[in-house]
Amino acid sequence: MITINQYLLATSLEEAYETLVANKKNVILGGMLWLKMGKQAVHTAIDLSKLGLDQITETDEYIEIGCMTSLRQVETSRLLQEHFDGIVANCVKDIVGTQFRNVATIGGSVFGRFGFSDVLTALLALDTYVELYKGGVMPLEDFVNAKRNKDILVKVMIRKSDSKASYHTQRNSATDFPVLAVAVSQADEGVKISVGARPHKAKRAYEAEALLQGGLTESTIEAAAQKVVEELDFGTNLRAGEAYRKQLAQALVKRAIDEIRA
Ligand SMILES: Cc1cc2nc3c(=O)[nH]c(=O)nc-3n(C[C@H](O)[C@H](O)[C@H](O)COP(=O)(O)OP(=O)(O)OC[C@H]3O[C@@H](n4cnc5c(N)ncnc54)[C@H](O)[C@@H]3O)c2cc1C
C-alpha cells in the first residue's frame, strides 16, 4: 500500500518543482491510479490540480493538452476528435472504464512511460512534443527514451497537420491492457509507424517506414508489415506470447496502413 506523509496543494509550478527535488521521496500526483497500486512511502505528495493545467487548447501550430487533463476529457474533446483523424481521442476509449478515465491524467499516462500504453503509442505516430518544467520542450520520442529524471510534465503538444492517421489495438477482453497497439500516420514528411505493448513501450519502426517512401502499394505495405516484426523487439508476458504478438503486429500494421491510404 502507498503511504503519504505530507500533502502539498501547489500554488505554482515553481513551488511544485522545488518541493519535488527537495526530497527523493517526494512525488507529483496525477490521478494517482497507478501510484496507488504501488508500495511507495511518499514523503510529500504534490498536487497540481489548482494550476489550471487541465485544458485542451489550440494554437496556430499545436493542440496542447495540459498535464492534469483527464483521459475522459481527451476522449470527448471536439478538438481531438477533429484532428489527427481522431486517434488521440480514440486511443483512450478502451482504458478500463469511464469513471477511471475521469480520474487518470494525460500527465501520468505520458510521464509513466508504460509499456502497455495506448496513449504513448498513438502520440508517437504524430509530431508530438512534451514540455517539462525544467527540461523544456522536447520531442516525445526523446523523452520516452531519456533517462528518468525528476521533472514536471507540464503539457503535451501535438503539431497540427492534415495527416491521416489510424489506431488499432488488440485486447484479450474489453478494458484489459492491450496485447498490442499500433498507430500509423501519414503527413507530408512520410508515414510514421508506432507499435506499443509489445509488451515493451512504444517505438517507431523506422526501417518499415522507409519502405513506404515510394508509395503505399500492396507490395510495399506487405514488406513494411514484415519489416516491423524484424526491426522491433517483441516479447512474452501473461497476456500473449512473442510469436502471437508478431502475427498481430503484421495484421494490425497492414490494417492501419490500408485505412490511411483509403
Ligand atoms: C488497472 C489499470 C489499468 C490500466 N489500463 C491501461 C490501458 O489499458 N491502457 C493504457 O494506456 N493505460 C492503462 N493504464 C494506465 C492509466 O491509463 C494511466 O496512465 C495511469 O493510471 C497513470 O495516470 P495517473 O493520472 O493515474 O497518474 P499517477 O498514478 O498519479 O502517476 C503516474 C506516475 O507519473 C508521475 N506523474 C503524474 N503526473 C505527472 C506530471 N504532470 N509530471 C511529472 N510526473 C507526473 C507520478 O509521480 C507517477 O510516477 C491503466 C492503469 C491501471 C491502474
TrEMBL record:
InterPro entries associated with the record: CO_DH_flav_C (IPR005107), CO_DH_flav_C_dom_sf (IPR036683), Diverse_Substr_Oxidored (IPR051312), FAD-bd_PCMH (IPR016166), FAD-bd_PCMH-like_sf (IPR036318), FAD-bd_PCMH_sub2 (IPR016169), Mopterin_DH_FAD-bd (IPR002346)
Domain FAD-binding PCMH-type: from-to ranges: 1-163
UniProt GO MF annotations: FAD binding; oxidoreductase activity
Keyword Signal: no
Cross-referenced Pfam families: CO_deh_flav_C (PF03450), FAD_binding_5 (PF00941)
Source species, domain of life: Bacteria
UniProt xrefs under PROSITE patterns: FAD_PCMH (PS51387)
Protein name, per record: FAD binding domain-containing protein
Organism (species): Holtiella tumoricola
